[in-house]
C-alpha cells in the first residue's frame, strides 16, 4: 500500500483521462487485477455480499465491510477505495465515523450513496447533502489525504430524474465532496452533461449498456474514473450459472475447457 494511499489515489483522477477502479471481491481477485494492470482497487458492496451468500443493498454490516476492505488493502500495493453503501446509517455523524474508520483500515477513500438502505428510496436532498458535509469534514480532519466520492443513486433506482441528480451532486460539491457519481444515467450523452455540471472528477459505472462503450467515449465525455461495481463479479457468476446449467441438465462439461492454467493464476498472485 502507498505511504499516503489517499494522495496516490487522488492523483489518478484526471477528467478526460479516466482510470479504471477495478472492483474486486476478495484478496485473490484484488491481487490478480493489480497484477494485470489495475492502478486502484475498489470494493463492491454487491460482490462482497455475494461472497457471504447474501443479496446486495444493505445486507452487510459496517464491521464486515471494514474487515473485508482491510483484507484487500493488505493484498495489494495500489490504493483501495471502499464502496460503503449509505455510510452504514442515516445520521450525518454516522457517515463521519465511517470515514474515520475507513481511513483507519488503510483505505484511500470511500463512496457514500443517498439510498436509505435496505429500502431503495433516497434520503431527502437536504439530508443527503448534510451527510456528505459531515463525511467531508471528517475526511479533511484526517492526518492524511482521503478521497470522498458522493453518489446520487436515484436515477439508477428510478426515484428521481437526472435534473434532481445533478442538483444533488452540485450540493455535494458545495459540501466538500472530492468526486461525484450518478450511476447509469439514461443516455450515454448524459455523461457529458454531468461532467459539465461540476468542477469535481466524475465517476461513471461500467455496467449494463455502458459496458458496451469504449474507454475513449467516457474520456470524451470528461469522465475521470471508471468503476465496475459488481459487473465483474456478476460476469463470474454468469460463468458459474451457465456451466452449472450445462453440467446438471445436460451432463456437458465443455465450458470447463476454457480456463486459465493454475500456474498462470499462481504467478499473478505472487
Describe the protein's topology.
Blueprint: H1 5-11, E1 19-23, H2 27-35, E2 40-42, H3 45-51, H4 62-75, E3 80-83, H5 92-104, E4 109-112, H6 125-140, E5 147-151, H7 154-157, H8 162-175, E6 179-181, H9 190-196, E7 202-205, H10 215-221, E8 225-227, H11 231-250, H12 262-269
Parallel strand pairs: 1-2, 1-8, 2-3, 3-4, 4-5, 5-6, 6-7, 7-8
How large is the share of residues in beta strands?
A: 5-15%
Order of helices and strands: HEHEHHEHEHEHHEHEHEHH
- Cα distance spanning the termini: 15 Å
Silhouette: globular
Overall structural class, as computed from helix and strand content, comes to alpha/beta
pLDDT below 50 for ≥5 consecutive residues: which ranges? none
Radius of gyration: 18 Å
Multimeric status of the protein: single chain
Mean pLDDT: 97
Strand adjacency order, main sheet: 1-2-3-4-5-6-7-8
Please estimate the helix content: 40-55%
- How large is the count of helical segments? 12
Strand count, sense and barrel status of the largest sheet are: 8 strands, parallel, barrel
Number of strand segments: 8
Report on this model:
The chain has 270 residues and is an alpha/beta fold. Helix content is 47%, strand content 11%. It is built from twelve helices and eight strands. The protein has an eight-stranded parallel barrel, surrounded by eight helices. β4, α6 (125-140) and β5 (147-151) form a beta-alpha-beta unit. α2 (27-35) runs parallel beside α4 (62-75) and α5 (92-104) packs parallel to α6. The longest helix is centred in the last third of the chain and has 20 residues, at 231-250. It starts with a helix and ends with a helix. The model has no long low-confidence stretch (mean pLDDT 97).
